[in-house]
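Class prep. Protein, please:
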Amino acid sequence: MATRTMFRSLNKVHSTLYNHLIGFRSKKVTLKYFGAGIATGIAIYSISSSRVIAAQTTLNIQNFMAQPITPVDELEENSNDMKAKMELLILKIQAEFCKALESLEDNDSRFKVDRWTRKEGGGGITCVLQDGTVFEKAGVNISVVSGTLPPGAIQQMRARGKKMEEGSLPFFAAGNKDGSKQWWFGGGTDLTPYYLNEEDAKHFHNTLKEACDKHDLSYYAKFKKWCDDYFYITHRGERRGVGGIFFDDLDMPNQHEAFQFVKSCAEAVIPSYIPLVKKHKNDGYGYAERQWQLLRRGRYVEFNLLYDRGTKFGLYTPGARYESILMSLPLSAKWEYMHEPDPKSKEAKLIEVLKNPRDWLNST
């Protein structure tokens, strides 16, 4: 992220960090030859109109990457409403994350900020940095979407136990004929290295555990397993990375406490990830490492297009902005027929962990 050169530092962490917060869809970031993906975005499916305690009354939009999607006066007037609190949270986290990533680059590498709206309701802010010195591609997206859920999206949610009627359904806030409101939180963050560094994995997981433990001592173990299960490439028989946390349909113990938990998770993204970039951004690499990175990116693409729930939801949503949905894909990736790494290689060491998830906080 300093000067633009033909060859960049290919970090041995080679990671992808996927961060998905609350109903928002989190978009990923694909890091330069440091090779990673980072996602931060949101699309709240449905939120009840219940009130929560405390809120700010005057907004300083200079702290955000762009003008909020909801009119500023409306956010200020309804600042105790959960929908407003969520939008303000993701605006804040997006700006902090972009600034943290830019601080690792040179002065010529900055995010392109693209604020967009959709006629069906809502919009988003897409921030993309490409061809930097450290980051080949980095994207930090948020979306605040309202409108009508199409049958395809409703079927996905009904399959997870949500009480949804047949046909299309208004959302944000979504209501059923019986007057009930459907609201929940979902999110996650995971690290997808191209080469295994156990200390990095332990740091990443420990930071997330500290965030979880502030709210419930059972959360980390439960959501860590959920992450291992969710980021699973079924046809390959391997996980996408070394895991993290993932949760969905969270509506306990109450809306306020669930929001505070998500807020803690969002605030853990920078300390869990940025130190790893600083540690490895100047590591050297060769041709073989670059080719392996491209192959692993191919696996990342396979998961995102075939299995990722957020991607599917976005593609089902009327008026979806496909440039933002597909921004998570890397600039470069490759596939080789029947490729297998040498059994004793560092590449094979990574594959072993991807096939057999490890308890990073209790392993030697």
